[in-house]
Specification:
With 624 residues, the protein is mostly beta strands. It has helices at 10-16, 52-57, 64-70, 145-148, 429-433; strands at 29-30, 38-39, 47-51, 74-76, 94-96, 107-111, 114-115, 134-141, 155-161, 168-178, 182-193, 196-207, 216-228, 233-246, 260-275, 279-295, 307-324, 330-349, 357-379, 382-393, 397-410, 414-425, 445-458, 463-483, 486-509, 512-523, 533-542, 546-561, 570-586, 589-596, 615-623.
Length: 624
């Protein structure tokens, strides 16, 4: 389907390089986990890449906190030390340039290029994305519906899973614990012998939480088995599973009693890839799904609920692409996607006076689409890219998603890129059929994005500067409004955002890297959980025997409650300072220490959920 570009986040890419060999060329190659590799300079889209080393340096169990720091324009809501949860009071909402939705239906999360979201609700499950499984994470900032269809309206997060590239056998162990009785432990293994390869792991995390009734514990595992038939063909089977338990204590002013959530999620994929001199491609068959049991609890003044929410959901699909280089400087990709998704919801009675099962909905939908992406390097300093996706959704009907861009390679290692793209998302089953506001006449949401970006290398790649400006206009957004005195989902919302993003990185000295990113977001209409200003400054030092890093993040103009006719809304401004370090004790045995919110800043991201003050985690890592 497609290859990723440029604007590889300065903070992350430079941090992941070997200190002695840090260098860059305009021919750097980037790709998602499942798309044909392409020189970054030929592509117009804006992408940040967070390496495995950056992800693991801070020892964070989940990838999302690291993405919030490393990727300009991206922000993830949070409510506690570890864990995001689902349903009422849940967090883990992702915004890119102010686009994300409530719940998060406008940013698509992928694992190895394949979609991951609840089939009924259309949003990702934030607690399912563990650092232990990731080789790197690639973030497309802006619409990617040409390549991935619905839900990629505002951007894409692609988690590329770990796999060995050369013959090796490595087993790694880690364990850490700290504030609020928090713990994180796991084991992983990577093996390659000739044509066979394997990567697998298991992880356990838990916390009692910084507030009563805010516990979280999770068991997760992943596995990948690969086989190379010959230099041209390879096969792979991958899978992951996660099970977590958590509770929602409610807001500090209106607490909730007895809330608990039990969620099981899993995914499995079979793939075949081919690679020749003039063509390459892949076909993948995949399944993802889950089982949710949720008891929302009650307030002290309310009667105890006598039912428990239950749901199962699934998504099965086929994804295929083939890239052909018809002539010099050309790369044309043809792709096809099919998805069948949906689920079953019922309420389970918890007393003799309530029926054991009350049906809510059992529904499935399908979507199929084809696309073509034509890329041509016209001369050595100029290339163009154009493509369109055509598809059909079983309810929303036919749709199209075009994209066009230009890339200019200028003297002095400079690049200028321009892109115009359309993103969209189809209404979810929840919006169409579930609960009182349901409306089965909803249409797809649409967004146009216009972007201009610049990047330049200095001193042979020791310093890099990148910047971009964008304007986006979303129409037909789905909102719940009163209609004839009753709430109803309607296509009435409009969103206009504009802004800029800046990235900087410099190798100050051998092993010492300074990096920073900044994003400014202008919103015609305020958006929840999308900061107006976000600045992140990081300093990292790598040595054979020890590593250390520190990070300062400044957030300004973050709405935790939107203004309305009665109130001006609630905004948050805050500064967070964190630090991490590791020291080699013996051979590959390392001691680690991480401290977050060192200043003890008082702040909220979810309204009514104060975030923890200073938290500390210490542990050991060992590889053999």
């Amino acid at each position: 389907m497609f290859s990723l570009l440029l604007a590889v986040s300065a903070a992350t890419t430079i941090s992941s390089a070997t200190p002695d060999t840090l260098s860059y060329t305009l021919d750097e190659v980037v790709a998602t986990g499942t798309r044909a590799e392409t020189p970054a300079r030929l592509l117009p889209v804006t992408v940040s890449v967070v390496s495995e080393e950056v992800l693991t340096d801070k020892s964070a169990p989940n990838i999302l906190p690291t993405l919030t720091e490393q990727v300009p324009g991206l922000f993830v809501t949070s409510r506690g030390v570890i864990g995001y949860g689902v349903s009422n009071g849940g967090s883990g909402g992702i915004k890119v340039r102010g686009i994300g939705g409530q719940p998060n239906t406008d940013i698509l999360v992928l694992i190895d290029g394949l979609p991951q979201y609840a089939g009924l609700y259309g949003h990702p499950i934030a607690d399912n994305y563990q650092t232990a499984m990731a080789e790197r994470v690639e973030v497309i900032r802006g619409p990617a519906s040409l390549y991935y269809g619905s839900n990629a309206m505002g951007g894409v997060i692609n988690i590329v899973t770990r796999q060995p590239r050369k013959d090796t056998l490595v087993t790694s162990l880690h364990a850490q614990g700290g504030s609020y009785f928090s713990a994180d432990a796991g084991i992983s293994n990577m093996l390659r012998r000739g044509k066979w390869s394997e990567a697998s792991g298991f992880n356990y995390i838990r916390t009692s939480g910084h507030r009563p009734n805010m516990f979280f514990d999770q068991y997760s595992g992943f596995a990948r088995l690969g086989y190379d038939i010959d230099p041209h063909w390879s096969f792979a089977a991958t899978g992951n599973i996660a099970y977590f338990n958590t509770a929602n204590p409610g807001t500090v002013t209106d607490p909730i009693l007895d809330s608990h959530q039990h969620v099981l999620r899993g995914m499995a994929t079979l793939s075949a890839e081919n690679r020749y001199d003039r063509t390459e491609g892949a076909i993948r068959v995949y399944y993802s799904g889950g089982r949710h049991r949720i008891y929302d609890g009650h307030k002290a003044s309310e009667p105890v609920p006598v039912t428990e929410y239950n749901h199962t959901d699934l998504m099965v699909g086929v994804s295929a692409y083939q890239t052909v280089r018809f002539f010099r400087g050309n790369s044309t990709t043809f792709g096809f996607d099919y998805q069948h998704f949906g689920g079953h919801v019922w309420n389970k009675g918890l007393s003799n006076q309530v029926p054991s099962t009350t049906e809510v909905i059992r529904k499935t939908q399908y979507e199929l689409a084809g696309f073509v992406d034509f890329r041509q390097q016209v001369v050595s300093w100029f290339s163009l890219d154009a493509g369109v996706r055509l598809g059909h959704h079983s309810v929303a009907g036919f749709y199209y998603a075009p994209q066009a861009g230009l890339s200019f390679l200028l003297p002095q290692d400079a690049q200028i890129k321009a892109v115009v793209s359309r993103g969209f998302r189809n209404p979810t089953i929840r919006e169409l059929y579930m609960y009182a506001p349901a409306n089965d006449s909803l249409q797809a949401v649409s967004l146009w994005n216009y972007e201009l970006s610049y990047r330049q290398f200095f001193l042979g790649g020791r310093i890099r500067l990148g910047a971009n400006i964008f304007y986006l206009h979303a129409k037909n957004m789905i909102e719940t409004r009163p209609v004839n005195g009753r709430p109803r989902n309607v296509n009435t919302g409009e969103l206009k955002n504009a802004g800029c993003e800046i990235e900087f990185a410099a190798r100050v000295w051998k092993g010492l890297v300074l990096s920073a990113n900044y994003s400014y977001l202008y919103m015609v209409n305020p958006v929840l959980a999308a900061p107006e200003h976000k600045l992140n400054i990081a300093l990292a030092y790598h040595h054979d025997r020890f590593r250390a890093g520190t990070n300062v993040q400044y957030i300004h103009g973050l709405y935790t409650a939107l203004p309305n006719a009665a109130t001006p809304g609630t905004k948050q401004n805050f500064v967070l300072w964190s630090a991490h370090g590791a020291a080699r004790i013996y051979r590959e045995l390392w001691a680690t220490l991480t401290a977050d919110n060192i200043l003890g800043t008082e702040y909220e991201i979810n309204a009514g959920f104060p975030m923890p003050k200073t938290t500390v985690m210490a542990g050991l890592k060992f590889a053999f």
